[in-house]
Amino acid sequence: MFSHIEEQVRACVEWLRLVVEALGALVIAVGVVLVVAGLVRHVLSRQGGGFLPIRLTFARYLTLALELQLAADILSTSVAPTWDRIGKLAAIAVIRTGLNYFLTKEINEERKSEESAPRRERGERPT
Length: 127
Prior knowledge:
By secondary structure, the protein is mainly alpha-helical. The protein has 3 helices and no strands. It has helices at residues 2-45, 52-79, 83-121.
């Protein structure tokens, strides 16, 4: 009886893992669509400036997708841990942590430059 329940739990976790992985792929797809739309808008408006806001938007979507993929790997590792799955889980965790660190750093730098831009236009010194 216990083995039957264990099999049902494994099957449910595998279905949940599949749903979470699909959500991760969907988040990436939505991010790509929004980035393409932002690039088209940027080109058509012929504005100067860089692509940093577009890059940051895409990075946020990638970070969310990576977190979903990490969750899916945690699910599969929890029901059938192998060294291969544990290694994959560790690699994804390191990559996600690095991406989040650099993304947060870039967002903070962008905020600081946006806050100091109006001051420079008025002739004030940045603080």
